[in-house]
Amino acid sequence: MTAPAALHMADVRYRWHRRAPWAINLPVLTLAAGEHVFLAGPSGSGKSTLLALIAGIAAPQAGQITVLGERLTSLSGARRDCFRAEHLGIIFQQFNLLPYLSVLDNVLLPCRFSRRRRQQAIERDGSPEAQATRLLGRLGLAADDVLRRPVTALSVGQQQRVAAARALMGAPGLVIADEPTSALDADRRAEFVTLLVQECQAASAALLFVSHDLSLASRFQRSVSLPDINALSPPAALASSGPHTQGAATEHSTLPGSHGSRP
Ligand SMILES: Nc1ncnc2c1ncn2[C@@H]1O[C@H](COP(=O)(O)OP(=O)(O)OP(=O)(O)O)[C@@H](O)[C@H]1O
Question: What are the residue boundaries of the ABC transporter domain, all occurrences included (predicted)?
Answer without folding.
Answer: 7-260
